[in-house]
Amino acid sequence: MNSKHHSHAIEELNDTQKRVHRILTAARNPLSAYDVLDKMRAKGAVTPPTVYRSLDKLIEKGLAHRLESLNAYVACQHLHPHHHEMAAFAICEACGAVTEFTDPQIGERLAVWSESNAFAPKKITVEVRGLCESCAA
């Protein structure tokens, strides 16, 4: 996603969705939906379904990702084109830092495997857990 498209996608969001996006973008670590809800409640009443709908919209627009193993969300870190059908993340088990990365070879290998096994993936999320450079030192 290029920065022009990214900006356009943000402009299409409603005010609540923009707030959720700002919260995710400002967060240092992944946030659960209830973490987002708590941050939003500081500025007025909001319900869990509203937060979940906003998170779903951000994911649909390619502005956020759901980390399956953590049941948490992060803002998309890429402002350049990449395939949102395949997201990859390095998750530090010590400090909780998450780095989004792309590797065309991973996507290609999964595509070959899927084709040879007559499997039609809808979404692929790769989560690599370990220690970041700072925590491993």
Number-wise, the strands total 5
Going by CATH, the architecture of the largest domain would be Orthogonal Bundle
Contiguous low-pLDDT stretches (5 residues minimum) are none
The proportion of residues in beta strands is 15-25%
What count of structural domains?
Answer: 2
How would you describe the shape? globular
Q: Which structural class is indicated by helix and strand composition?
A: alpha+beta
Calculate the terminal CA-CA distance, rounded to whole Å. Answer: 34 Å
The CATH homologous superfamily of the largest domain is termed Winged helix-like DNA-binding domain superfamily/Winged helix DNA-binding domain
Into which percent range does the helicity of residues fall?
A: 40-55%
- CATH fold-level topology of the largest domain: Arc Repressor Mutant, subunit A
Order of helices and strands: HHHHEEEEHEH
Reported for the largest beta sheet, the result is:
3 strands, mixed
Number of helices: 6
CATH classification class of the largest domain: Mainly Alpha
Write the layout of secondary structure elements.
Blueprint (H helix, E strand, L loop, with lengths): L2 H9 L3 H12 L6 H9 L6 H13 L3 E4 L4 E4 L10 E7 L5 E4 L2 H13 L7 E7 L2 H4 L1
Parallel strand pairs: 3-5
Antiparallel strand pairs: 1-2, 3-4
Helix pairs in contact: 2-4, 3-4
